[in-house]
């Protein structure tokens, strides 16, 4: 079996943790697997280097920032290779360049364009563990680029795709994806299997273990991901894979809570075609991430338009909407909201899932301010102070603690 | 003027020191020079990374060690580029690979084979300060190599040669080469100009500012080197350049002391042709660095052979000479010796320089155990405890304190 394993910053946080990683890799190698390992920088290194850069400039040139921070993963890859070889396991450390990872030129947020797997395949054929410095590649100028947040996950998934690996294991400091945040609901259970789409809904809704772009890439490349803990590698993690009929037996997979949204309400918008489109186009031009949108017609041919944006983008949103202040009745901004989402592919084939959500919140006297649904998700905006209560009530209602 | 500047570990030891370097470079750029800067790793970084490697193995694989330690210079080069750009000076950081530095494959001690200056020239033409990560290049496999001790000096000299730079400035924590070690003789004076050959004699004899290999390369490529202090950049340093008639006016340039040698004496060697050659060939095969050699004929057709080796190689020398124990009278090893050397191109055209050295030591009642001379150097082996006294006496005798 060919396995790609990715170890994040806390998993390689010090020399003892790197030794632990070497032991995990060794156990796979000894049972006969071929292994490619993707590593992050040791915890804290990337931020230290960014602090160095910011000492000289609040806006350091991004090409140099990439050269600077990419050194962190190089260090880890070399150390892991040394650790493995000291244990008698043949290994070789490759930089992003050497692993054939070609990216766009957008420094600090490049996208992977292509992977030439030849060098990795050659070393695998020679029986070596191939260790790749994550988070980085080169652009067409031959300059080092980095992939932005979650970049090492992305490297691992892309390599698994290029090598047609049997599995991509993402090692982190939690042992899988949970039905909800265990800090909110201690009865939260680890999910055994989840579909890409469910994971995407959970990731974008605040489950921070996997970045959406890595899950999207895994879905596109059809790469099976297992999220596991490097602290307890013997415990089975959560498998993220393509949707199957089997999964639909489970009505709801998880409950997500997002308290970083704000609600924007525009009252008395002219109810003519194109007005909403105009507003959302202007917001998009400023890269403001609009999430839920609800529009309903009021009286006198005027409509009310409500949507959510990240709290960090409220000020920018206010600027964009300034020009509408005079030709609408009122614009309100509310940051004291929470978005609670119920996610599960089972809803596709079961009715009554949404009704149960509404009833559950009603039973707790929680007022629902906005509702938005997709095939596999029901999102509800409520008063922020009821967020945790809503999560616990829904978790129980869908029997996720069983 | 095109200047190559090299800044060592203490000169880039922290963010404030890097800022200081940026100001030095900026002052050159602003007066109209083109500047290429070669940087070392921040002081302590390389050793820290080597300690990491040694945590896993006493003999870590050298290819991975090179990948590991080369990251130190990359970090400094990126930071200096950021610092310069933040001061409004266009700059670009290049890795050894990007600077076109091709080396042999000998990891951790590679030699520079070739430099392709095209990329550096392109950026210089665009008005940028080119910053190169020192100490590193790539081999024919595309793997990162490092150049060993003094590698960044070597990078700077080689680049100065490849670009036909007007000057190569080596910035360090002393402001030049001194007539002798100021810790031994406080009256030691900074030398203004010194020839390559004199510097080579001084370097190999214990003046640790410049490694011999960098001076040798400078001589070969005809690169003028100025050794300066990054702490006092306004002060003129020592110029190392090709020998000129002018230099011969100065009788003696400096006095060097080397206390790390040991004396090996073989008594009663058969006085037949080839026996010395045989012994020295065997020592050379073990990479033992034999320095001074004296041979004289004793009685009964037997010769006495005396030579010096580094103290660290005494044990290995003993092993090699074991086979001669039975067919010689005696083999003695003495580590309590010091080698004092008087260096100066002036001796070529002046007589009596050696006689003055012998007389000076005699006046101090210091017995000379061995003598060896070259065109520009007189070396004398004496009892170790008289080393400093001899240096001070010679320094005075040749009026180096004037």
Automatic annotation (TrEMBL), chains A, B:
EC assignment: 2.7.2.4
**Mind telling me which InterPro entries this protein's record contains?**
AceGlu_kinase-like_sf (IPR036393), ACT-like_dom_sf (IPR045865), ACT_Aspartokinase (IPR054352), ACT_dom (IPR002912), AKii-LysC-BS (IPR041740), Asp/Glu/Uridylate_kinase (IPR001048), Asp_kin_monofn (IPR005260), Asp_kinase (IPR001341)
Which Pfam families does the record associate with it? AA_kinase, ACT, ACT_9
Similarity comment: Belongs to the aspartokinase family.
Reactions accelerated catalytically: L-aspartate + ATP = 4-phospho-L-aspartate + ADP
Annotated ACT domain residues: 264-345
Q: Spell out the protein name for this chain.
A: Aspartokinase
**GO molecular-function annotation terms?**
aspartate kinase activity
UniProt cross-references to CDD domains, sorted A to Z? AAK_AKii-LysC-BS, ACT_AK-LysC-DapG-like_2, ACT_AKii-LysC-BS-like_1
Q: Which domain of life is it from?
A: Bacteria
Could you confirm whether the keyword Transferase appears in this record?
yes
Organism equals Caminibacter mediatlanticus TB-2
Alphabetically ordered keywords of this record: Amino-acid biosynthesis, ATP-binding, Kinase, Lysine biosynthesis, Nucleotide-binding, Transferase
Enzyme class, spelled out: transferase
